[in-house]
Design brief:
The chain has helices at 27-38, 46-53, 59-76, 81-84, 109-122, 132-144, 159-190, 193-206, 211-223, 227-245, 251-261, 265-270, 288-298, 316-325, 349-356, 367-375, 399-409, 463-475, 486-495; strands spanning 4-7, 13-16, 19-20, 44-45, 85-87, 91-94, 276-277, 305-309, 335-339, 380-385, 413-419, 428-432, 441-442, 445-446. It has 503 residues and is α/β, with parallel strands linked by helices. Strand 5 (85-87) and strand 6 (91-94) form a beta hairpin.
Length: 503
């Protein structure tokens, strides 16, 4: 069966088995094919199609034109129209069997775009502009949006067709703008300013008078060091607003311009990027699966307390830090790392948190009401590292009870805890952290890094082996994994059960 694909976003284009179809005689043929494909879920009566595309003609003339259009479509589709249409004397429908067993998701770009957008609307996340999975979906979706729906294709003598096309055009246009706005905001928060600028420019191409898009572009240009371009963008925004809407830029836009004029880029950045208080970036080997799981939990609005548990030296702290770093810019009021190891009593937890987030507390003041009031409306991610020795108390100073109170008073603060034992709070999501994968032998032979296998596995691909080699090369630049060293390294990693600190 032949494979038909169509682009309806932007200029109409259809291909058959990858070859561009160029034999459409009229726009009404294109319109008929597009309409039947988009409305493929149901059959359409011939008289309704006649009224849609030839509303001002007699029934006989309209019926003749519909027959001619179907005949010419058959010719354009190389006499294979029966593959794509179910036709009876009274009805016509796009043939759903022509799409079986499973066409590429973008056989019709409108459906692919809408499906990606809808998945983001249904997906469970804290904020769509901080959800990695949805950002990837939207980035794919906007590559499909090559222009407005059926751009340049107009059936001037049919108000009904124009109304149908305009409804789809408006909805898809608005969704594209929303997707581009989310993507630009995401990259502003992440500090990837060139991408933020690119998505903002695409917004402006769709709606030159859209002030929010100009503001995003100004911020992206300024923060990437292009001060003159950012100021020029303000002038372009001012002219577009005056010409199209007879308005002046809003106060927010003007303030950003003034900050750029004074080269106060920290004020511009404060509007788009939250504080990031984390230790220096560290190399993390072999934790991709764990990182993905933690990201999913941090993006889940139902999850506000994640506890990484495991023995000492298993790598909980490093995993927590890099998981938080992946959330850079995604929490409005910042990301903070707090080491609890030096604390002697649970009563010091609140004071330590207050100091870390910048609260000023006088020596004679009680910290709890001040901290609770400050956190009430904050949107933060806070890492509490090494909590285990502050758990298990018999009074309300127990560390777990303090965390439970914080959860109650600060509904938008997410806590990422590392501990050797769980907190046993009702709101806690526990994730066990184990050692890095190392070669194991069983009755089937050696286990490979990705599969069970053969007698001669590539041990060097196991994360535990990789970590050993990286550490060894720091101590001795001439160290190499080879037939002489691999057996000993494998034995060491096995005896340590992949424990990163031991390795």
């Amino acid at each position: 069966m032949a494979f038909l694909a169509m682009n309806l976003l932007g200029t109409f284009k259809a291909t058959l088995d990858g070859e561009l179809i160029t034999r459409f005689a009229t726009d009404k043929e294109r319109a008929l094919l597009a309409y039947l494909a988009v409305e493929r879920e149901q059959p359409h009566r011939r008289d309704s199609l006649m009224a849609l595309l030839w509303p001002n003609q007699s029934k006989e003339s309209a019926a003749n034109n519909l027959r001619k259009s179907l005949f010419r479509l058959r010719q354009s589709l190389q006499d294979r129209a029966e593959d794509f249409f179910l036709a009876t004397p009274s009805e016509i429908q796009f043939n759903p069997v022509s799409l079986l067993p499973s066409p590429p998701s973008d056989w019709l770009d409108v459906f692919a775009f809408s499906d990606l957008y809808s998945e983001c609307q249904k997906h469970l996340h804290r904020h769509i502009n901080s959800c990695e999975a949805c950002v990837k979906r939207l980035a794919h979706a906007v590559t499909l949006y090559r222009g407005d729906f059926l751009k340049g294709l107009s059936i001037e003598d049919s108000e009904e067709f124009e109304r149908w096309a305009t409804t789809h055009r408006s909805r898809l246009h608005d969704q594209a703008l929303t997707a581009l706005t989310i993507l630009s905001e995401y990259h502003l928060r992440r500090g990837t300013f060139e991408l933020a600028a690119d998505y903002a420019r695409q917004q402006i191409a769709l709606e030159p008078w859209r002030e929010e898009s100009h503001l995003q572009l100004m911020q992206a240009l300024a923060l990437s060091g292009r001060r003159s371009a950012a100021l020029a963008q303000y002038e372009q925004c001012r002219r577009a607003l005056r010409e199209e809407l007879n308005l002046d830029p809003a106060e927010t836009t003007t303030r950003v311009r003034e900050s750029i004029l004074r080269e106060q880029y920290e004020l511009v950045e404060a509007n788009v990027r939250a504080p990031l208080e984390l230790p220096a970036e560290m190399t993390l080997i072999g934790r991709a699966t764990e990182l993905t799981r933690i990201q999913e939990q941090l993006e889940n609005p139902a999850c506000r307390l994640v506890t990484l548990i495991g023995i000492g030296g298993v790598g909980k702290t490093r995993l927590a830090i890099e998981s938080a770093r992946a959330q850079t810019g995604m929490f409005r009021d910042g990301i903070f790392f707090i080491d609890l190891a030096p604390l002697n009593s649970p009563s010091q937890i609140l004071q330590t948190i207050a100091k870390k987030i910048g609260l000023s507390v006088e020596p004679n003041q009680v910290v709890k009401p001040i901290l609770f009031a400050a956190l009430r409306d904050k949107e933060m991610l806070v890492i509490l590292d090494n909590l285990e020795h502050l758990l298990g108390g018999t009074n309300r100073e127990d560390g777990a009870e303090i965390i439970a109170q914080l959860l109650d008073v600060a509904p938008q603060v997410v806590w990422l805890v590392t501990s050797r034992i769980a907190l046993s709070c009702s709101a806690e999501w526990v994730m066990n952290v184990e050692g890095l994968a190392f070669p194991r032998r069983n009755e089937n032979g050696w286990q490979h890094a990705n599969t069970l296998a053969a007698s001669e596995p590539d041990h060097s691909k196991f994360p535990a082996i990789e970590l050993f080699a990286a550490c060894a090369r720091r101590a001795n630049e001439n160290f190499a994994l080879n037939a002489d060293t691999l057996p000993a390294v494998t034995s060491i990693c096995q005896s340590l059960h992949g424990l990163p600190l031991g390795i």
